[in-house]
Amino acid sequence: MQRKALTPNDFESLAAVEDRLLGFQCYDESIATPFEWRFTRDDLAALIRKPDGDATALPVAA
C-alpha cells in the first residue's frame, strides 16, 4: 500500500490521503482476480510435524 498508493507522501491534507486510499481501493478491486490456493491444511500439518522445518518433503502442487 505504501509503495503503490502513498508514495510520494506529499499530501496537502488528510482528506487528500483518504481520496488516494479510496481511489487505490477501487482500482485494486477492479483488477483483482481469484487465485487457486494450493497450500492445504495437510501441507501445513506435515510442515509442522517435521522437526527441522524442511519444506522440501512436501508434494509440489501442479
Please tell me the overall pLDDT: 85
Contiguous low-pLDDT stretches (5 residues minimum) are: none
The major beta sheet can be summarized as: none
SSE pattern, N- to C-terminal = HHH
Distance between the termini: 30 Å
Our count of helices gives: 3
Which class of secondary structure composition applies to the elements?
A: mainly alpha
Query: Quaternary arrangement of the chains shown?
Result: single chain
Domains, number: 1
Question: What fraction of the residues are assigned to beta strands by DSSP?
Answer: under 5%
- Estimate the global geometry from the Cα principal axes: elongated
The share of residues in helices is: 40-55%
Spatial extent as radius of gyration: 20 Å
Total number of strands = 0
Please, could you describe this protein's structure?
This protein is an all-alpha fold and 62 residues long. 50% of the residues lie in helices and 0% in strands. It has one domain. It is built from 3 helices and no strands. The two termini are 30 Å apart.
Key attributes of the depicted protein:
mainly alpha
Helices and strands in order, then pairings?
Elements: H1 2-5, H2 14-31, H3 41-49
Concise summary:
Helix content is 50%, strand content 0%. It has three helices and no strands.
